[in-house]
Specification:
The chain is α+β, with helices and mostly antiparallel strands. The protein contains 15 helices and 18 strands. Strands 5-8-9-2-16-15-14 form a seven-stranded mixed beta sheet. Strands 10-18-17-13-11-12 form a six-stranded mixed beta sheet.
């Protein structure tokens, strides 16, 4: 922590201020990460691992304070993180206007922006199992940063396990990579990362058209099924959760769908054959699923607009030693319902637009706007409030998580060996920003494509979200089978016979 004295208090970057001021108690700007283990995790080794992780990634234990008219990250004098008790501090609580238990809001001026829970189950009839749940405020770091945290956490836990057993600690290329805390000062500096000019230069008209599209051609939200407004009653106020509610909501902030290995392998093979990335396929299929969902539940017409948010990682090789932080931008892809009718044209247009986004670096325009507006806090907050419906849905593709972890830890019998336990699954879901109502993430875990979703409890129920995610995953399976009839008639008509 010697470097920390030269870094903290650390001014918030414009992007971090956006996440801080865009937060709402009824729809927190928080992501969830869940790890499932075969075996009982040792609490003392977990404590040691968490201390190691917070030392390497100090923003995990920082709070926010205002100094002289600006906002800063402040590092506590003592360790500011611990494993939370499952029974005393729930992950989901009743909230105003929410039809179900909602994610527990975070006040970064009073607590760090990352919560850690661990739950173990052991009985005489079943093998012991463990779960880790992490709630992360987006102002702290992005999903790629959290991946660094998880790698360090699991490596530190395995080291503690090996040391306790008297075995030699296994060296690891990523495990021993140092973290340079001073690199946090450069987290919003992109001059070195983009020193070379963009392949495509945007004209003044293209920039104006992009600004007009973003500010004035607003997208439609995902439709709320009528059943959600008839049989569910919002909670009257924020109240302490009862033991029953804690048990119901402790480890259920997300919904999941997982494809089997055979279907997942066919999907990846078809993507390679068609020169299409998994991310491009995910965007196109999500557009189609949203079109059919909104037509069924709200009757949206062909001119209705949809918009997806796609995070763009801005890290380069020079950032490998940077601790977990936000080093990303956002790209927006929009379509009308009519533009989603022809599946071949939709997929091709998405493929072309994703390439254009990378070549033109249009995603940097939003960061430039944040950099200009954050110096005028009142106007920045007002602008954020006005753009409550920036997108229809958030979509994040996390890649093959197991491949990255496998470079740091051994894999045995298809599971990640972390010492006395084996990691079986990792799930994650981005924040469901107000107005978008839904955040979807997909990743590949040991050959299986996994979908997870976080949702706005004011407009969607858990059953609604699960149904939507099931339809989205089903479209992947149909694409793997090359069901042309499905993509010609659309999901709505295909489901009419259900």
């Amino acid at each position: 922590m010697n470097q920390a004295t030269d870094v903290f208090p650390l001014p918030l970057s414009p992007l971090e201020k956006f996440f801080l001021w865009d937060d709402r108690p009824s729809c927190p700007m928080t992501s969830f990460f869940e790890l499932q283990f075969d075996g009982i995790l040792n609490r003392s080794w977990l404590d040691e691992a968490l201390n190691t992780v917070c030392t390497r990634h100090p923003l995990l234990q920082c709070t926010v304070a205002r100094r002289g008219g600006d906002w800063f990250w402040e590092l506590p004098p003592a360790m500011g993180q611990r494993w939370l008790d499952v029974g005393a501090m729930p992950a989901l609580v009743p909230m105003k206007r929410c039809v179900e238990l909602s994610p527990w809001p975070m006040d970064l001026t009073r607590e760090p922006g990352c919560r850690f829970w661990c739950q173990t189950t052991d009985s005489q009839t079943t093998a012991g199992r463990s779960r880790i749940l992490i709630q992360l405020h987006h102002a702290v770091c992005d999903g790629i940063g959290m991946r660094q945290v998880l790698i360090d956490l699991l490596c530190a836990y395995r080291n503690a396990s090996e040391s306790a057993a008297g075995r030699e600690v296994m060296p690891s290329r990523r495990q021993i990579r140092p973290r340079e805390i001073t690199r946090l000062l450069e987290r919003f500096d992109l001059t070195q990362r983009f020193a070379k000019p963009a392949k495509v230069t945007l004209s003044g008209k293209e920039k104006r058209d992009a600004a007009y599209y973003f500010h004035f051609q607003r997208p439609r939200t995902i439709a709320t099924p009528r059943s959600s407004t008839t049989h569910l009653k919002p909670s009257p106020d924020l109240q302490p959760a009862t033991p029953r509610l804690r048990a119901q909501g402790m480890f259920n902030p997300m919904v999941h769908v997982q494809l089997d290995r055979d279907i997942s392998a066919r999907i990846i093979d078809r993507c390679n054959d068609k020169n299409t990335s998994v991310n491009e396929l995910a965007i196109a299929l999500l557009f189609r699923t949203l079109v059919d969902w909104n037509r069924q539940h709200r009757g949206d017409g062909p001119k209705s607009r949809l918009r997806l948010l796609m995070p763009v990682d801005l890290r380069g090789r020079q950032d490998l030693r940077m601790p977990a932080t936000n080093r990303l931008a956002f790209a927006f892809l929009g379509r009308t319902h009519a533009q989603c009718e022809s599946w071949p044209e939709l997929l091709e247009s998405v493929r072309d637009e994703v390439k254009w986004i990378g070549d033109s670096r249009v995603f940097l325009n939003l960061l430039a706007g944040f950099d200009m507006m954050h110096k005028r806090p009142w106007w920045f907050r007002r602008l954020i409030a006005m753009h409550h419906n920036m997108m229809t849905c958030v979509l994040t593709y996390a890649g093959d998580i197991s491949r990255g972890l496998g470079k740091s830890l051994p894999i045995r019998d298809g599971k990640l060996d972390v010492g006395d336990c084996s990691l079986e699954h990792i799930y994650a879901a981005p924040p469901a920003r107000r107005g978008s109502r839904l955040g979807v993430a997909l990743c590949i875990n040991w050959g299986k494509i996994c979908f997870s979703a976080n949702y706005d409890r004011r407009y969607l129920s858990r059953d609604d979200t699960q149904l939507f995610l099931n339809r989205y995953a089903d479209s992947w399976s149909r694409w793997a089978e090359d069901d042309a009839d499905f993509f010609r008639v659309g999901v709505t008509q295909a489901l009419a016979s259900e």
